[in-house]
Amino acid sequence: MKNTIAVLAVSSFLAFSACKKGENTTGPSDKTEAAQPEKLVLDSVKINDSLKIADSLTVRFTSKLLVFPTLKDKKLLDSIYFNHQGIKDFSKKGLEVYLDNDKNSYFNSVKSDSKDWISDISYAQSWYTSSHMNLISNDNGYMHIEYVQSAYEGGAHDNYGFSERVFDLKNNKKLELKDITSMPKAKLESILMKNINKEKSGTTDSEGDVNNSEMLLVEVIPATNNFYFDQKNLYFHYSPYEIAAFAAGDIVIPVSWEELKGTLNTEFKERMKIK
After folding, report:
1. DUF3298 domain: which residues (predicted)?
2. d(CA 144, CA 168)
3. Which of 106, 147, 202, 239 could form a disulfide with 161 if both were Cys (CB 3.0 to 4.6 A apart)?
4. Is the pLDDT of residue 12 over 60?
5. Distance between CA 73 and CA 65 in Å, rounded?
């Protein structure tokens, strides 16, 4: 009888130990799964407001910021909001407060400065400042954001410009041109000049379409960090007046992966599945 009780006691102890071991095994597994990168979550904050400075002048402020609740790396976030210095709180509420302060700062600035020249405006005008962040793509861990800024504060026409930024979410950094290709700058710039007319300008005159090359203001098209890409090409984006006359508008010049063959970064090539 004593032997039977001893056997049961040992069996119970082993069963209990097995359960505890099972629990310990599950714990680390859960932690590993939780450490996996979170799926990108996207939100936005917008503001659109106007202020009448005088009978002859109304100003409008429009802005949109993207919100990334799952991105926590401060250096990466500072880079994403590079054109909005001083952001400390990257939450939706924090960005709403930032935009409201930015709007008030713009209105107060125009209001204060206008005291010196408002009487010189002879007809009613509407001025504005506008900035928008747009998510273009998020593929293979590369997130492409386009920043569009425009403004009108008197003169013949408004002004606008584009900033293209690609972020490597795997390595928490802004992608640089050297992360894509090792091609010497001079050679890449010669390809840009060769490809200047690959995309139509949309500008016409009495004789028909006007090529981008006919409106160039520079002898060398710089290979800047204002780029983005897809499965076919690397694209360089130039704002008005950057390389050509305002009539040319913004210009996009493609450079195919074939033209960059032999110079592509190995990691980039593999992640983009470029053959």
Report:
1. 184-258
2. 9
3. 239
4. no
5. 18
